[in-house]
Amino acid sequence: MLNRIERHDIINAMALSLVLLLCGYAMNRWVDSLSTAWDEGFWQAEKDESGILPTGDEARSAAKIRGQHLPNEVSVLVGNGSDGIDGLAGRGASRLGDAGYGTLQPQNVDGEPVEVTTVYYTDGFKPDAEAIAILLGFDEDHVEVLRDSPGVPVEGADVIVVFGNDAAG
Q1: Which parts of the chain sit beneath pLDDT 70?
Q2: Euclidean distance between the first and final Cα of the chain, in Å?
Q3: CA 131, CA 159: separation in Å to the nearest integer?
Q4: In this structure, what DSSP letter does residue 18 have?
Q5: What number of H helices and E strands is found in the chain?
């Protein structure tokens, strides 16, 4: 009697197979939706061709570069190293704050004026520095790893922006 397969056993096996197949399909769809949500959750910036500081809506559209961290997970220090452009660090910090970055108190750079704006990053924050550079209207050529003091206290900062005289345009 145990060796005999009955019709209801076959029907039960087919029903179970169908249920498992549907569960697998539903789970696959769910994983795909999580993946899409994760990808869309990263902050995205675009380079603005018209000026140094694009508006928040422009900065969030057209995914050209993505930060590795969410903006609120990145601490940014902005320094003004330009020759007489007052308030540049404050405006830059305000723009980054509007984009969701955690900004530290803007600083003036000690020493000689800086000619070229540079975005410095600490370990693990290069993609974020590149996103910040583009948000501020600069390309990835302005991004460097932080090796020496950029003329501002950097304690607690993941990314440091030092505006130079080229930021006037």
Answers
A1: 1-3, 33-66, 169
A2: 90
A3: 11
A4: H
A5: 4, 8
pTM: 0.61
Fold assignment, 44-168: Alpha-Beta Plaits (3.30.70)
Give CA separation, 12 vs 1, 3, 86, in Å: 18, 17, 78
Judged on CB neighbours under 10 Å (0-12, 13-18, 19+), 101 is buried
SS3 117: coil
Structural domain spans, the chain: 1-41, 44-168
pLDDT value for 70: 87
> Contact 80/106 with Cβ under 8 angstroms?
yes
Separation between Cα atoms, residue 107 and residue 92, nearest integer Å: 11
3-state secondary structure of 91: helix
H or E, element range at 162: strand 159-163
Which pLDDT does position 75 carry in this prediction? 92
- What lies within 8 Å, CB to CB, of 2 at 6+ separation is none
The answer to whether the Cα torsion of 20, 21, 22, 28 is positive or negative is positive
How many angstroms separate the CA atoms of 39 and 55, rounded? Answer: 22
Residue 129 tokens read as 């520095």
